[in-house]
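S1.2 Input.
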Amino acid sequence: MAPFDLATHAARIDEDGFTIIEDFLDAPTLAEVRRVLGFYIGSHMGRNDFEGTRTERVYTLVARGRVFWSIVLDARVAALCQHFLDDGYLLTASQAIEIQPGETPQPFHYDDTFYRLPRPRPMVSLSTIVAVDDFTAENGGTEVVPGSHLWSDAQLGRSFDITEPSTPEIEHAEAALAEHARAVVMPAGACVVFSGTLLHRGGRNRSPRPRCAFSNQYCRAWGRQQENFTLAIPPEVAREMPERLQEILGYSIHPPFMGQLTASHPRKALAPDYVSPIVAQARAAGARLPE
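S1.3 Output.
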């Protein structure tokens, strides 16, 4: 594996909004990803046009198999997160996405749209999408609008609130964006890394086969995470994870005290004998609490 050139990849994100790490997963890791996803893919489709009515999603992927622990902590991605998001960055989303044949294009969006800060601005989040199957222009590979990460609110021209119902005006704007979009073509095991301010979408799957991928997204230490990992991941699973992974899931403090747990470090909640200070102090005062 060639040494990772942080400066080159960071410059591509600065200029175009995205970069591709071609050799992100080796063959044994990719095979293990496919094996684990085999237990979960095939359960249900999305609930709306954004999730995709012919698209399957597996949320909280980081807790589904140990192979995803090391992927979330990948040193190359960590270097890009440190470069763009600074100290204390968190994992904000972790999901698998399989686009079935016949799926329509996803609406264009940018991943940190819910941080209501005026554009242009630095990114609040950094996203990765890893190809489990080859990405092509025909099978629903991700489409990006190069340079759109630098656009102002005025240049965007409209809201990209994913809860907004479609209108003829929005459909016209989507078609205009599609003229500038570029399909991310990459082999299985490659990873596209992009700014949370970059316009992108899952493409139309015109092929006869599904297209599978997974996405880990990271945010600045002060940003609210999309997924509430400290509740979603059972403590007995989180307890087994590496300390660094626990930290970026939310078992950490951003100085001076953001994320504290009743004035203590949140990692204490993972101790097998942990009792909430609220419960302990209430019992000590004579309160009768449910067991």
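S1.4 Remarks. The beta strands are 18-21, 55-58, 90-99, 125-131, 142-144, 182-183, 191-195, 200-202, 211-219.
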